[in-house]
Design brief:
homodimer, 334 residues, alpha/beta, Quinone Oxidoreductase, Chain A, domain 1, Rossmann fold, 2 domains, 7-stranded mixed beta sheet
């Protein structure tokens, strides 16, 4: 039987928001694995803000996606053929499989996952990169102490919903900043945040002053721009800012807007530090185990926003940048 | 004998560079110390970039100077009268005496200094705030390790000349960024920096790439703006940026320009942290003793830029911001 692969290749470096015309949707016969390789049928594809950064021709923690290459993406899938002794047919796996239906890989960076412990989509959210990013970014880089004030931006997003819940588990006060009444209701009533600030209808700086009268101890930032500046203006002495991304800035065609209030770091002897989940690979298993116990105890919830159809990729990706998604965004491959 | 005090009061909050008309030059008879007070004749007045920040009506680590108040300044002087048991007539002292000839003080924050150990101006430079700022900012916040690459901006300035020399003492490679050939010659030939970048005639980003091909481990920043961005673009994994000030931004009438390359903190898992010397008061003595041994061994030099005449204050202050001074700027009170 000849299988057909559909895939999205990067056709152009987008200016501003990526458009459908920045991609080539291609079709090809699926190849056979060579010695050491395996063939994965991709079932779910993770859509992440960092993808926008990989599309620019700039040095980052990974090289940019080349023009004409399959768009890089994490995914989970099932092994359909294997000439790699580590993997057998029907194993479930996660890895960087790209935006396509079938991936041939040498197995580097591919991990077996157990669909009996959690449904597959959870391996792209709380047991995947977003969950690990939240866990290590908050606990290792943010170093929250019981009773401290933790503020999380884009708080209904995949990573930050976990950040806020872990901060609550660690007995911190948690304020989430999110867009719209529904997301604010969700993080307070369903996730147990102490308070929410709706950046679409409130003055974030004033609301931070109200909810954090003694200042912010840990600010977990994934958005940059005006909200980062508002948080900088309300830091407490010795505060830690965790820089996890800058979603508000990724589609800028001009230069990135730096945080004009950064001198608050000086006034408050505060720290701003970048966090990258890849530095913690050796500790993923321990973190996963701890988060599983929290989930079993009902203290940690996650929500996935699953869109069907590989072919919707160009439009679905934009949900990340216009604030439409709530929970971890992913594609279910048909 | 009735003594006369001359003093500079803040008359207006300056917009941009402070002008003579932003000050009131006033004259008054010198008062008598009350019980617990002492009268200090001010001999040298320290001029520091932070003074510009104190003139703005914004919350900082100290309150702003009020309109009509004596301009805040550190100084050294001699006790002329004392009703405070801690101080005797003819003691030499340092403290926050303001821009004036005579200061009445209750002795809070006033320290006795020994003019036999070092000339008085050194107590406003290497044995004063600039020296302590350099020592603790570099060693405590920057955490340089032997063999690492340390970059210092405004490197001929009072604080940073000491930073660079301490980094050399700690066996780091040191690159200084300074304005003009003479300052560059000074930091390399007299202070022993490994290299200098003249920001007036070189492309700082390119030169950083040349001098720091493997990236910057510690960047000590007092200038902000384009030079901070250039350093951010050349960080090494795990780099530390010490934020000590932002002299390029203090006279802005618009908003401060934030560092647009701050996402390099993420890419490089780097840290940007503010440092404030006042946090280390309890360790000044130990730092002073260590720096004295380095000075005695000829490893640590300092240069003072001493301008005569209290009445030149408004114009002399500007030397800090137009790059004219080389070494610690201070006024000698006539």
């Amino acid at each position: 039987m000849v299988l057909t692969n559909h895939k999205f290749l990067l056709a152009l470096r987008p200016v501003g928001m990526p458009k459908r015309s920045d991609w080539t949707y291609a079709e090809e016969p699926v190849g056979e694995p060579k010695e050491g390789e395996l063939l994965v049928q991709v079932l779910y594809i993770s859509l992440d803000p960092a993808m926008r950064m990989w599309m620019n021709d700039v040095r980052s923690y990974v090289p940019p996606v080349g023009i004409g290459e399959v768009m890089r993406a994490l995914g989970v899938g099932i092994v359909r053929a294997s000439r790699n002794p580590r993997f057998a047919v029907s194993d479930h796996v996660s890895g960087s499989f790209g935006v396509q239906e079938y991936a041939l890989t040498d197995g580097q960076g591919v991990t077996k996952i157990d669909a009996r412990i959690a449904p597959l989509p959870k391996y792209l959210s709380v047991f995947g990169m977003p969950g690990m990013t939240a866990y290590f970014g908050l606990l290792d880089t943010g170093q929250p102490k019981p009773g401290e004030m933790v503020v999380v931006s884009a708080a209904a997003g995949a990573v930050r919903a976990v950040v806020g819940q872990i901060a609550r588990i660690k007995n911190c006060h948690v304020v989430g900043i999110a867009g719209g009444a529904e997301k604010c209701r969700y993080i307070v009533q369903e996730l147990g945040f102490d308070a929410a600030i709706d950046y679409k209808s409130e003055d974030v700086r004033q609301s931070l002053r109200k909810h954090c009268p003694e200042g912010i101890d840990v600010y977990f930032d994934n958005v940059g721009g005006a909200i980062l500046d508002a948080a900088l203006a309300q830091l407490r002495l010795g505060a830690r800012i965790v820089i996890c991304g800058a979603i508000s800035q990724y589609n800028n065609s001009g230069p990135i807007a730096g945080p004009s209030n950064y001198l608050s770091l000086l006034t408050n002897r505060a720290t701003m530090k970048g966090t990258l989940v890849l530095d913690y690979v050796g500790r993923y298993a321990q973190a996963g185990a701890e988060m599983a116990t929290w989930m079993a105890a009902g203290k940690l919830k996650s929500r996935e926003d699953i869109v069907e159809g590989l072919e919707t990729f160009p439009e679905t990706l934009l949900k990340l940048f216009n604030g439409e998604n709530s929970g971890k965004l992913m594609l279910k491959v048909g």
